[in-house]
User: Which sequence fits this backbone?
């Protein structure tokens, strides 16, 4: 099928590359010319395992091309994916300017029946809004259908999630559109494309849920909000553990053995961040408020998460006393491992607070080498973990990158001037570190 993907951000690029890999002809467009030039040269603007290789291969085979002319791309395609950003406004309401612009452009460029798919996480009702804008801008009366098809990709595992999804949600009331969608995703539903044969994860067919567009839009928000709730809940229990002398690792293990609860997404820590959870939980809370059903649980979930970051600073004060002039080595900047994404990363809040309190902060992340937008420029980047920890009074692990578990902690003990470790992810071997002589502080552990 001829597919066009509008927006080559995280979701758009992964979607485009993966659709090409399962045999479609994909044209990805973006209004950012620099990004398109770089992609045309085979350079992947994001760090995502396996993506660059698939990008190169599909470009070489002619299944994947990049361009800047959205109107032309719409004209040439049967299926149009909208994958543009919906950043939050200060109120928490998502900004739909980019979606509206694209819908106007699609309306003007329709030249035959097309399916317009919304993959961006959008406020409830956006499918209907897109339909209305396209209709208002149509120059002829070509038929079209709008489908809500939320993505559930995790950063760092996006390629795997795209090829081996746990479900495909199709939000459409139109049988013809649903049939075409099932054809589009056929190889993924059946798991019979080459990549799946080589990397088989799922033996059975992928479940497909067909529902109305509003329910489909809510499935995405409610899923992310539920996962964020799970983490905030566990973090709250971790804080109780600290007060009463229990161990969160045993508590969550014990809870997770109940199949109704499950063991996943139960890791206590410094809290959730990233490009999805913070934005989506706020947006759902905003929608709930707007429709007269205030979301008390969601508001508490956000509050617990905001407080959790400052628990690290409190722990540092408990260990060091006055922070002024202390040297703190921070390991990890990205909001989670295996990504270079620092959006809403807890690291930024924590480092800024340390600097505000007068500490000297040295930071090392295996992948992030530039200052995230909101990070105070007073933080100093170190070339490796050891350099970040030279003469440090305190080490704070913020992101659980695998290389941090392999550090030589005997060496670290010799180069640090203090012996304090705060493990914001309960990731390191507490027992081993204590044996070496470190003062180890985890989260509820
Ligand atoms: C999330 C959803 O998982 C994905 O389905 C959706 O499409 C986009 O949002 P992502 O933001 O990439 O994906 O990250 P994820 O791996 O879900 O982690 C989100 C945050 O929760 C991270 O900050 C992570 O550190 C934190 N987290 C996760 C915990 O603190 N504890 C856990 O047990 C799991």
Assistant:
């Amino acid at each position: 099928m001829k597919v066009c993907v509008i927006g080559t951000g995280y979701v758009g690029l992964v979607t485009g590359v993966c659709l090409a890999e399962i045999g479609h002809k994909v044209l990805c467009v973006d209004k950012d010319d620099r990004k398109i030039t770089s992609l045309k040269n085979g350079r992947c603007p994001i760090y995502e395992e396996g993506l660059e290789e698939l990008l190169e291969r599909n470009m070489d085979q002619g299944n994947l091309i990049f361009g800047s002319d959205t109107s032309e791309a719409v004209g040439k395609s049967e299926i149009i994916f909208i994958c543009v950003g919906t950043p939050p406004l200060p109120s928490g309401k998502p900004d739909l300017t980019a979606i509206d612009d694209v819908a106007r452009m699609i309306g003007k460029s329709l030249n035959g029946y097309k399916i317009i798919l919304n993959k961006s996480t959008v406020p409830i009702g956006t499918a209907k809004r897109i339909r209305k804008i396209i209709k208002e801008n149509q120059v002829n009366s070509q038929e079209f259908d709008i489908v809500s098809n939320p993505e559930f990709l995790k950063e760092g595992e996006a390629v795997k999630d795209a090829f081996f999804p746990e479900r495909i949600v199709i939000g459409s009331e139109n049988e013809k559109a649903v049939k075409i969608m099932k054809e589009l995703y056929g190889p993924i539903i059946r798991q019979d494309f080459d990549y799946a044969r080589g990397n088989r994860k799922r033996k059975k067919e992928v479940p497909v849920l067909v529902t109305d567009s509003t329910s489909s839009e809510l499935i995405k928000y409610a899923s992310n909000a539920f996962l964020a709730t799970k983490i905030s809940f566990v973090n709250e229990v971790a804080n109780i553990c600290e007060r009463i002398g229990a161990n969160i690792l045993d508590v969550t293990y014990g809870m997770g053995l109940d199949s109704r609860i499950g063991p996943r997404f139960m890791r206590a820590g410094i809290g959730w961040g990233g490009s999805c959870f913070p934005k989506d939980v706020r947006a759902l809370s905003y929608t709930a408020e707007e429709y007269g059903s205030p979301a008390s649980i969601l508001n508490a979930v956000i509050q617990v998460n905001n407080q959790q970051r400052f628990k690290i600073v409190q722990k540092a004060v408990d260990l060091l006393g006055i922070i002024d002039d202390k040297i703190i080595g921070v390991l990890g900047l990205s909001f989670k491992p295996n990504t270079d994404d620092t959006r809403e990363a807890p690291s930024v809040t924590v480092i800024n607070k340390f600097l505000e309190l007068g500490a000297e902060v040295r930071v090392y992340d295996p992948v992030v080498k530039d200052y995230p937008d909101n990070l105070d420029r007073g933080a100093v980047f170190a070339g490796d973990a050891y350099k970040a920890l030279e003469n440090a009074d305190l080490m704070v692990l913020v992101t659980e990158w695998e290389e941090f578990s392999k550090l030589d902690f005997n060496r670290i003990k010799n180069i640090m001037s203090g012996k304090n470790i705060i493990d914001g992810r309960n990731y390191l071997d507490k027992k081993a570190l204590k044996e070496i002589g470190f003062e180890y502080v985890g989260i509820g552990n």
